[in-house]
């Protein structure tokens, strides 16, 4: 977890999920950025549910920052890079507890590392591979660091609310990656 530790060495919240994939680590990690793997219809529905109040407000004529924007997805993350065939990492920064996520534009990995704004949360999600038997242990870890106590107090109830859906999305992502690798091998 070299990239995870480089970009978010300290954190306040974390979740980890893992599964076995009967393929080499390089093959497994290669599928993690593919659209057919990350574009999950269940994830899209859960995200739409999360965004529904903001989008409804926009339709009713109220101010709504999500109006006209595509649904939240991997494209909102900053690509933090890949460490050979062992790890791929993505970063996100903002005030996630806000109805529009309060995202901060972070154009690249050095900008993500340097970001120290108060009142925000920084999130790193990675995918790691380790040889295991004749295959690979694929793990995803998500860590969140809050820049100050006020951000941490605001993020905690949000985390408790979204963590089950977040965990489901990550577990499905791992299974979709495994299934993609197995389809390629067939």
How does the overall form come out from the CA principal axes? globular
Structural class, please?
Answer: alpha+beta
Mean pLDDT: 94
> Radius of gyration over alpha carbons?
17 Å
- The tally of beta strands, per DSSP, is 5
Helix content: 40-55%
Q: What's the tally of helices?
A: 6
**Arrangement of strands in the largest sheet:** 1-5-4-3-2
Biggest beta-sheet profile: 5 strands, antiparallel
Order of helices and strands: HEHHHEEHEEH
Report on the architecture of this protein.
The protein is globular and about 55 Å long. The model has no long low-confidence stretch (mean pLDDT 94). The protein has six helices and five strands, in the order H-E-H-H-H-E-E-H-E-E-H. The protein is an alpha+beta fold and 186 residues long.
């Amino acid at each position: 977890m070299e990239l995870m530790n480089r970009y978010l060495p300290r954190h306040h919240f974390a979740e980890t999920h893992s599964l076995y994939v009967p393929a080499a680590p390089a093959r497994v990690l290669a599928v993690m950025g593919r659209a057919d793997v990350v574009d999950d219809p269940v994830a899209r529905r859960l995200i739409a549910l999360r965004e529904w109040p903001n989008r409804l407000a926009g339709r009713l004529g109220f101010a709504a920052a999500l109006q006209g924007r595509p649904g939240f997805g991997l494209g909102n993350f900053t690509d933090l890079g890949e460490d050979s065939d062992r790890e791929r990492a993505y970063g996100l920064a903002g005030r996630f507890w806000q109805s529009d996520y309060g995202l901060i534009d972070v154009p690249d990995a050095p900008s993500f590392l340097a970001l120290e704004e108060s009142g925000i949360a920084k999130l790193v999600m990675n995918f790691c591979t380790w040889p295991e038997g004749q295959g690979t242990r694929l793990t995803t870890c998500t860590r969140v660091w809050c820049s100050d106590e006020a951000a941490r107090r605001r993020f905690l109830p949000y985390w408790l609310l979204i963590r089950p859906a977040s965990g489901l999305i990550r577990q499905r992502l791992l299974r979709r990656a495994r299934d993609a690798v197995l389809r390629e091998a067939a």
